[in-house]
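User: Can you predict the 3D structure for this chain?
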Amino acid sequence: MTAPEACLTPRGSWGTCIQALAAGWILPGDLCPTCTEAFTAALDGIAGPLKWCPAYIHRAETERKLS
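Assistant: Here is the predicted structure, written as structure tokens:
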């Protein structure tokens, strides 16, 4: 899986939010809606359906509304 190309917050030389997260520059709570959706989907894919914090759910729903 690759970082979303539609990242809403490109982070300079770090690339997408997911790339910045992997590099240790931001925390999961700093992800844009697109990257939040990719992040939660990836972890659900590894561990099965997880119970997500309401803030993550809200951000992911924001992405679905933008699409």
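The longest helix spans residues 33-47. DSSP finds three helices and no strands in the chain.
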